[in-house]
Amino acid sequence: MPPAPPASDRWIVLKFGGTSVSRRHRWDTIGRLAQRRAGENDARVLVVVSALSGVTNELTAIADGAADSDVRLLQLEQRHREFAVELGLDPEQVLGERLAALRALGVDPRAGGRDLAWQAELLAQGELLSSSLGAAYLRAAGLDFGWMDARQWLQASLLPNQSPWAQRLSVSCSTSPSEGWSAAFRQQPARMLLTQGFIARHEDGGTAVLGRGGSDTSAAYFGALLGARRVEIWTDVPGMFSANPREVPDARLLTRLDYYEAQEIATTGAKVLHPRSIKPCRDASVPMAILDTERPELPGTSIDGGAATVPGVKAISRRNGIVLVSMEGIGMWQQVGFLADVFARFKKHGLSVDLIGSAETNVTVSLDPSENLVNTDVLAALSADLSEICRVKVIVPCAAITLVGRGMRSLLHKLSDVWATFGRERVHMISQSSNDLNLTFVIDEADADGLLPVLHAALIDSGAMPVEETSVFGPRWREIAHGIRKRDTPWWQGERQRLLAMAAAGTPRYAYHLPTVRARARALKQLSSIDQHYYAIKANSHPAILKLLVQEDFGLECVSLGELQRVFEVIPELSPRRVLFTPSFAPRAEYEHAYGLGVTVTLDNIESLQRWPEVFRGRDLWLRVDLGRGDGHHEKVRTGGKESKFGLPVARVEAFVARARQLGTRVIGLHAHLGSGVETPQHWKQICDELGGIANRIGSVEIIDIGGGLPIPYTADDEPFDLDAWGAGLAEIKAAYPGYRIAIEPGRYLVAEAGALLLSVTQVVEKDGVHRVGLDGGMNALIRPALYDAWHDIVNLSRIDEAAEGVFDIVGPICESSDVFGKRRRLTVATTEADVVLVADAGAYGFTMANAYNLRALPKEEVLDV
Ligand code: LLP
C-alpha cells in the first residue's frame, strides 16, 4: 500500500444527487458543506454531482430514440436556462457552449442508428450542464472552486464478456491510478473542485457512462483513486435504515455498518446507496458516510472496515417483482452437468439468477426483476427451452423478504416469532447466503403487504435485532420525521414526601394517583368517535377508582361474579345497564346471576346456548367474536386466534345467530377484544371495520364494542399512545357504519400510570459479580415482570437525587427464580437496607393480580387525590 499522503493533501469526496442540485438553496448548502470540510485539517474537497433531477430520464428517452426528441431537447435547454437565471447567472455565458453541444447531438448523424458512443455523449450532458451551473454559482459566491471534466480522470476498464452496450453505457472504472495521476490531480489550483458523476473516458478517448446509480460509484472511484479520508454521499434521506421507513415508521437509522453489511443492505433493498459504490471504497479502505442534505446535523450512516461487528439482524427488506422458476428434474438429477445445462439456458436468455434452492428432484431459482423480464415472452421462451430437460413451473409475482445481518446462523434460535409470522404465508423458498449475511424468504407478493412492520417488531422483541446497541442503531424514522413525543413527567416525582410518609406506614403498598386516572378518562371521553365508555375493572378494582370512573361517565366491565359484587357494593345505585359481564368459561350460575342483576351479558360460544337454553331464552346478549388473530405486548395477553380460548370464530357466527333466533335471544351487541398493550392504532380500526361487516349481516346489532388493549409507555423509549390518530381512524370506519354505536372497554390505559408500588429494601448482596437489591415484595405483589417479562421503571425514592451509577438486579423475597423485577437496573450505589424503592406504572394488573404466595401478606393500597 502506498504511504498515505500528508494530511494537507488528503481529500474528502462529497457526492450530491439530482434533488440536491436542483434548487438554489441546495447549492448554498453544498457550498457551505464543502467549505466546512475543507476546513477539517486542511483537507481538499472534491464535489461530485448528478444531473438536475429528471434530466437523465429525459436524455435516456432521447437516446432510446423517442419520437418527440426535438421537443424534449428544447425543453431540457429551457430548463437549464431557467435554472441559470434562478441562480442569478447569465445563461449564455455559463451554458452557451454546452447547450450548443447538446443541440448538435440532437442532429448528429449517429443519432439515427442510436450509435452507442453517441448515446453515451448525449447522456453525459446532464452532469456536464449541472456541474457547470454549480461551479459558476459557487465561484460567484466567492468560493475557491475549480471545475473539472471527470472524463479526464476516470478511465473505463473494459471487462471480458461484457456486451458492447455495457462497455459503453454501464462501465466500471479502474481504481489504480496510472503513473503521475495523483500528482497531476493535486496540481489543480483550486482548493475545492467540482466534477460530474456518472461519466468516464472510454478506451477510445470518447465518453462512457457508468449506468444507473453511477454518481455514487463515481464518488467511490474518486475516493479510492485519491485514497480519500472519506467519501460522503449526500442525499435526501438520513441514511440507511433497518427497514424502508415508508413501510416501517419504527425503522431505526443504522449509524454504523461495515462494508459487507452495507453492501448486503444496499443490494437487497435500500435505495440510498448504489451497491456498486461500496467495493471500490472497501478495497481502498476509504470510509463512506451517507448524510441528509436537508438535515446535515443527523449522524447519518457511516460505513467502514473498523465498524464493530455487532452480531444480529441489522435490516429487513422487501423486493417485489421476483420471478421463481421451479424445475422438476426427474431422472436428470445427479447427472453430471445437469445444472450447467440449466444455467446455460438462463444465460442464453440474458436472465440472471439470484437465489437457488435445490432438492433431490427439484431446483428452484429466483430471478431478479430486470428489464428483459418485464417482457414476458422471455419467460415463455425460457420455459420452452427448459422443458426439454425438466418440468418447469413459473411462480409470479413473488416478493423476497430478506433479513440482513452478521452471524445469521447463530441467530436462528431467536427467530421463532419470525418463523411464526411466516407460518401464516406460503413460503416458496428460503435461502441463506453462503457469507452468513442474509436469510431470504420468498412468498407471494400479495402476502407481503403489511408484513414488514410485524416482522420488524418481532425481530426487536425477540432480541434478534439488537436495537439497544447504540453504536449501530440510531433513532427511529418517525422520531426523525415528526420528533418524538415524550412521556409526561410522572406524577410521583412531585409527591415524593407524601409517598415516603406512606411507605413509613408499611410496605409493600400501592399508591394510586386519582388526578391521573381522571385525566386519562377525560382524554378518552373527548374523542367524538366513541359513543360508550366502559372500564375493565380487572385492571384495578379499588373502590375510589371505580367511583371516580363512574362519575366520569364510564360504565364498568366485569368478568366474574366477584367483580360484579364489588361494583354494586361500592356503587349500589349504579344502573345495571351501565355494567357489562364478559366472562370466560364461567359456570352457568354466573350467567343466571348476571341476568338476574340486569347487566349486559356477553357470550362467546354456541355450546352454552345449546346446553343452557333456559338461561338465554328470550334474553338479549352481546356476542364476542374471534377475528382470527391476536395482538399485544406479550403472547400471554393475546386473546384471538386458534390458540386462544376467547371468542366465537367468525365462521360460526351464522350458526350462533340461527340458534339464538330459535331461542328468541337477540344479539344486540358485537364484541371483540384481541389483546392487551397493542401499539398500532390501526388495530382497532380494523376490528371496527370487521365487526361492522358482521353486524350488517346479523341485522339486530345496535352496538359494536372494540375492546380494550390501549397501551401505555412503560419505558422512556415508548411513545405515549397517539389517541388523536386512533380516534381519527375510528371516525373513518364509523362513517362507513353510521347505524351502530361504538364502545370501548380499556383497563390499563386508565389506571396503569396512576399507580406506583412502594417497597422497602431488605438486603443488598453481591454474588459472583452480580449485585442484587432485595425488596420486601416481589412477584407476589406485582407479577407482571415474572409473568410477561414486563418492564417497569424502578427508582430509589429515598435517594432520588443521587446519581444512579450502580447496576443491580432488583429482586423480591419469593422462593422462585423468576422473582425478579428487573435486571441490570441503575440505582445509586448507596442503596441500602430500608430505602424505599418505587416501581412505576403499576396501577394496572398490579394489586388485582397480587397473591399470597409463600404466605406473604397482600400489599396495602392507598389513594392520593389532588
Ligand atoms: N376487555 C376484555 C374482554 C379483556 O379481556 C380485557 C383485558 C380488557 C377489556 C382490558 O384490556 P386492557 O385495556 O387493560 O389492555 N394482565 C395483563 C393484561 C391482561 C388483560 C386481560 N384482559 C397485563 O398485566 O399486561
Itemize the secondary structure elements and their pairings.
Elements: E1 11-16, H1 18-21, H2 24-38, E2 44-49, H3 55-63, H4 69-86, H5 91-106, H6 116-140, E3 145-147, E4 156-157, H7 164-169, E5 172-173, H8 181-187, E6 192-196, E7 199-201, E8 207-209, H9 214-226, E9 230-235, E10 252-254, E11 256-257, H10 259-268, H11 278-283, E12 288-292, E13 301-303, E14 312-328, H12 338-348, E15 353-358, E16 362-367, H13 371-374, H14 377-386, E17 391-406, H15 416-423, E18 427-432, E19 438-444, H16 445-448, H17 451-461, E20 473-476, H18 477-482, H19 496-504, E21 509-513, H20 514-525, E22 532-536, H21 543-551, E23 555-558, H22 561-570, E24 579-581, H23 588-597, E25 600-603, H24 606-611, H25 613-616, E26 620-626, E27 648-649, H26 653-663, E28 666-671, H27 682-698, E29 703-705, H28 723-736, E30 741-744, H29 748-751, E31 755-767, E32 770-775, H30 784-788, E33 794-796, E34 806-811, E35 820-827, E36 836-839, E37 860-864
Parallel strand pairs: 1-2, 1-9, 2-6, 3-6, 9-12, 11-13, 21-37, 22-23, 22-30, 23-24, 24-25, 25-26, 26-27, 26-28, 28-29, 29-30, 32-34
Antiparallel strand pairs: 4-5, 7-8, 10-20, 12-13, 14-16, 14-17, 15-16, 17-19, 18-19, 21-31, 31-32, 31-36, 33-36, 34-35
Helix pairs in contact: 3-4, 3-6, 4-5, 5-6, 20-21, 27-28
Residues 536, 539, 557, 582, 637, 639, 673, 676-677, 707-710, 745-749, 784, 788, 844-845 line the site of ligand LLP.
Distance between the termini: 73 Å
Q: Write down the domain tally.
A: 4
Q: Mind telling me the CATH class of the largest domain?
A: Alpha Beta
Beta-strand content estimate: 15-25%
In DSSP terms (H or I, runs of 4 or more residues), the helix count works out at: 30
Cofactor: pyridoxal 5'-phosphate
Protein name: aspartate kinase
Keywords: Amino-acid biosynthesis, ATP-binding, Decarboxylase, Kinase, Lyase, Nucleotide-binding, Pyridoxal phosphate, Transferase
EC number: 2.7.2.4
